[in-house]
Design brief:
Rossmann fold, 29 helices, about 10% strand, disordered N terminus, disordered C terminus, binds adenosine-5'-triphosphate, meiosis, hydrolase, ATP-binding, helicase, RNA helicase
Length: about 700
């Protein structure tokens, strides 16, 4: 549901307090429902009836600071919150960044980012942990609601929970604490690590206490036109040819230059043509033959450069060559390929790509992900499954329920592999590969793709891959796409909203993603923009899955040209015509920055990314930002250089613009870059090296 949808009746104002609290908004001072109607934007901001549910303690345990500005904020349009608060140093942290202050200010690590949430979940106890996690923030008890109650409450219930309930704490909505505990993060449900059995889906499925998830995603359109709908490659698509590619590992097969060289079957070739692909991207040129040769692969290529097809096409080709049998209805399915990705939207996108390329074959891809009815996932699987696209929690749930057997897995793909192997999902992935029935690594092909691959994660990844795996680097590990014009603006937290409005007004109706740090802030900023008459929707982990999907639809269709998002939307999402990314808050890591700005400038198209750099909170990013900017040949502000160079321990030993500052971390290859002894390393440039990114 978009925030501007007239059918939307309740919007979250999670920042006010219960009855009697001095900061509680009164309904006369908060009546944006009327004001928005009068502006023709529908009833977007109706104050919820149960105002006693608002508790600002949940936000930061600093009620006075938490509530004051919020109230002001919602009555004063653009100025809400910020002006008044800025004059009062004591309220510094609260209202400014959208009225609730940043996670930094609150000092609550779990609150700080959704990413952090998911990590916490990853290591937390199952069941209790989910509730506890949320409860830790809001002090919630177990759910009061069952599925029926949930349904009775109708669609707005979900919205209220997503938008108002959840972590902000609603005593009356305590049940959300439990659900939110597993749904509130930016990613899929993950079970606590350290348990020998998988029960991650129990809560989702309603096997245990807690409300069931009832959402059944609508089936995607299945007419040929919809299946093959695609956007045009951009003017810089041919520039891909100039990017240096490096392959390390023993005996890599030579790259291919055209689709024809891949010798794919006719149906696949037809599908490739219908998808509008006429030329390979560099990651495809190198990865396709490697996968076709049966090798394990870790591939790192910049955002939007076609990594999905780079693994899907050769896997499908293998399956076709092997004469794969059509998969029929069975209680337990044994897919030949499992693809995992960290977010629901991303895995759904991968599934749609798989469906496109498998069109007209007997290969049946299936997608399952959290936030949807478990029975729906089971039904999808039972109808037949060759390629299972899944988020980790739902996957493990299905395995645990014996709906998915692993015996026949030949291909295991970790998309956004660095994310899949970090603290959040790493333990789950380890369990997946050691789960009874899963073929050991020498009996399956394991493929990992991402735009970023921190060295520590590379080492971990080695445990999942055969020792002689190949490592393909297109451009630089973790490099930003040079088709994104990056600007860094020094903006303090008090001026961010005003700056954002200026930018959005100057942008007009061009599609823009605005990234913020927390789920609450996403709601707040989205609402703020709606009040400013900018058609906006939001996506984050506290929204119902239905709402998340609707938000994406509204954004894709242009109904809401602005999407406010947390890091849940940072990775992988491929949305046509996203011309701008605004980092309202910079992420904590440079890798996240690279993924976020990669939502624009995809597939040879150009895009712009503007990031607000707050001297107080973002200085630690100065040095890595400087490197990312200069490597992508972007203008570096002098002030940023100064901060970067003055940072304690600043290290600029790596020359700016150097290629392959970080590559294959395997000891065997360290220090031997450029050597080609025994075929250990090969450096390739698909165009002249002089034209490279360097
Ligand atoms: N060879 C090609 N020709 C034309 N379009 C392509 C080609 N390869 C991929 N694309 C399109 O480019 C877009 C980006 O591809 P994809 O989503 O696979 O990028 P990615 O490298 O996985 O990005 P990210 O790192 O953000 O996940 C998609 O719309 C895809 O259909």
């Amino acid at each position: 549901m978009s925030l501007l949808d007239p059918s939307s009746t309740a919007i979250a104002w999670p920042f006010c307090k219960e009855d009697g609290f001095p900061g509680r908004p009164n309904e006369s001072s908060f009546n944006c429902s009327q004001s928005t109607n009068s502006t023709g934007f529908g009833s977007i901001c109706t104050w919820p009836q149960r105002s006693r549910s608002f508790r600002c303690q949940d936000v930061n345990e600093e009620p006075n600071r938490g509530c004051q500005p919020r109230m002001r904020g919602f009555t004063s349009g653009r100025n809400f919150g910020s002006r008044d608060a800025s004059e009062n140093p004591n309220t510094e942290n609260t209202p400014r960044e959208g009225g609730f202050g940043s996670g930094r200010s609150f000092g609550n690590r779990e609150e700080r980012t959704e990413d952090a949430h998911s990590r916490s979940r990853g290591f937390s106890r199952r069941g209790g942990a989910r509730g506890d996690f949320r409860g830790g923030r809001g002090g919630f008890g177990p759910s009061q609601y069952n599925e029926n109650e949930q349904q009775e409450r109708g669609p707005h219930f979900g919205l209220r929970r997503g938008m108002l309930g959840g972590p902000t704490g609603d005593q009356e909505h305590r049940g959300f604490g439990v659900r939110g505990g597993y749904r509130g993060g930016n990613e899929e449900v993950i079970a606590g690590s350290g348990r020998s059995t998988w029960k991650s889906g129990a809560m989702e499925s309603g096997d245990n206490q807690g409300p069931k998830v009832t959402y059944m995603p609508p089936p995607p359109p299945d007419n040929e036109e919809a299946i093959f709908a695609h956007y045009q490659t951009g003017i810089n698509f041919d520039k891909y040819d100039t990017i240096l590619v490096k392959v390390s590992g023993l005996d890599p097969p030579p790259a291919i230059l055209t689709f024809e060289e891949a010798n794919l079957c006719q149906t696949l070739n037809k599908n490739i043509a219908k998808a509008g692909y006429s030329k390979l991207t560099p990651v495809q040129k190198y990865s396709i033959p490697i996968i076709l040769a049966g090798r394990d692969l870790m591939a790192c290529a910049q955002t939007g450069s076609g990594k999905t097809a780079a693994f899907l096409l050769p896997i499908l080709a293998h399956m076709m060559n092997d004469g794969i049998a059509a998969s029929h209805f069975k209680e337990q399915q044994e897919p030949e390929c499992i693809i995992v990705a960290p977010t629901r939207e991303l895995i759904n996108q991968i599934f749609l790509e798989a469906r496109k390329f498998a069109y007209g074959t007997c290969i049946r891809p299936v997608v399952i992900y959290g936030g949807t009815q478990t029975v729906h996932s089971i039904r999808q699987i039972m109808q037949g499954c060759n390629i299972l696209c899944a988020t980790p929690g739902r996957l493990m749930d299905m395995i645990n329920k014996e709906k998915v057997g692993l015996r026949k897995v030949k291909y295991l793909v970790l998309d956004e592999a660095d994310r899949m192997l970090d603290m959040g999902f790493g333990p789950e992935m380890k369990k997946l590969v050691s789960y009874p029935g899963m073929p050991p690594k020498d009996k399956r092909q394991t493929l990992m793709f991402s735009a970023t691959f921190p060295e520590g994660i590379q080492r971990l990844a080695g445990e999942f891959l055969k020792t002689e795996y190949l490592f393909v680097v297109v451009g630089q590990v973790g490099g930003a796409c040079s088709d994104v014009q990056q600007s860094i603006l020094q903006v303090d937290q008090y001026s961010k909203r005003e700056k954002l409005i200026d930018i959005l007004l100057s942008i007009g109706k061009e599609r823009t993603m605005v990234f913020v740090e927390t789920k609450k802030k996403a709601d707040f900023i989205a609402t703020f923009l709606c009040q400013e008459k900018i058609a906006t929707t939001s996506i984050h982990g506290d929204r119902e899955q239905r709402e998340r999907e609707e938000a994406l639809r509204d954004f894709r269709s242009g109904k809401c040209p602005v999407l406010v998002a947390t890091s849940v939307a940072a990775r992988g999402l491929d949305i046509e015509n996203v011309q701008h990314v605004v980092n309202f808050d910079l992420p904590t890591t440079i890798d996240e920055y690279v993924h976020r700005i990669g939502r624009t400038g995809r597939c040879g198209n150009i895009g712009k990314a503007i990031s607000f750099f707050d001297l107080k909170t973002d200085s630690h990013l100065a040095e890595p930002l400087l490197k990312v900017l200069s490597d992508a040949q972007q203008e570096v502000p002098v002030w940023l250089e100064e901060i970067a160079f003055s940072a304690p321990g600043a290290n600029f030993s790596i020359p700016r613009g150097s290629i392959f500052a970080s590559v294959d971390t395997r000891k065997t290859y360290q220090g031997k870059d450029g050597m080609n002894a025994g075929g250990l390393n090969q450096s390739y440039a698909t165009g002249s090296a002089d034209e490279s990114w360097d």
